[in-house]
From TrEMBL:
<keyword id="KW-0805">Transcription regulation</keyword>
<protein>
    <submittedName>
        <fullName>Transcriptional regulator SlyA</fullName>
    </submittedName>
</protein>
<feature type="domain" description="HTH marR-type">
    <location>
        <begin position="1"/>
        <end position="144"/>
    </location>
</feature>
<keyword id="KW-0238">DNA-binding</keyword>
<keyword id="KW-0804">Transcription</keyword>
<dbReference type="InterPro" id="IPR036390">
    <property type="entry name" value="WH_DNA-bd_sf"/>
</dbReference>
<dbReference type="Pfam" id="PF01047">
    <property type="entry name" value="MarR"/>
</dbReference>
<dbReference type="InterPro" id="IPR036388">
    <property type="entry name" value="WH-like_DNA-bd_sf"/>
</dbReference>
<dbReference type="InterPro" id="IPR000835">
    <property type="entry name" value="HTH_MarR-typ"/>
</dbReference>
């Protein structure tokens, strides 16, 4: 079933535009909430991915987060400069760089886990439980999960 046609398609009414707008709203609100921690929402995702063991190398993070390796390197450089993570070469394969949070990084990650739910809950406060579950289901369906 086609949902758009050449005649009916309007950029600002399209699902892509709306998804992008929603992402921008959440990013701006999360960035504002994380300001005191001196990290961005993009950096937050890296720290939480490492905390939860979802990735342990720059390549795994790039793949998981859909970020090109050049941008990932720059973001990791910033986090390392802030003493939030460290890099080390794998003893099994010198080409592989392993990432680990520092104790400061673990502290920041713990604070993120207090802040992020508050930001998201504030944005979702007008949603019923059923609406929230439907939104999550539809977004997963849209991205193919």
């Amino acid at each position: 079933m086609d949902h758009y046609s050449k005649e009916s398609f309007m950029l600002t009414q399209g699902v892509g535009f709306t998804l992008c707008t929603a992402r921008n709203v959440i990013t701006a609100e999360m960035d504002a909430a994380l300001k005191d921690l001196d990290i961005s929402s993009q950096q937050m995702v890296i720290l939480l991915s490492l905390t939860r063991g979802a990735a342990t190398t720059p390549f795994e993070l790039s793949k998981l987060l859909g970020i090109d390796t050049g941008l990932m390197t720059r973001m990791l450089d910033k986090l390392e400069t802030k003493s939030l993570l460290g890099r080390s070469r794998s003893v099994d394969d010198r080409r592989v760089v392993n990432l680990a949070l520092t104790s400061k990084g673990e502290d920041v990650a713990a604070q993120i886990q207090e802040i992020a739910p508050q930001v998201l809950n504030a944005r979702l406060k007008t949603f019923t439980r059923a609406e929230f579950e439907t939104l999550c289901h539809l977004l997963r369906k849209f991205v193919g999960d």
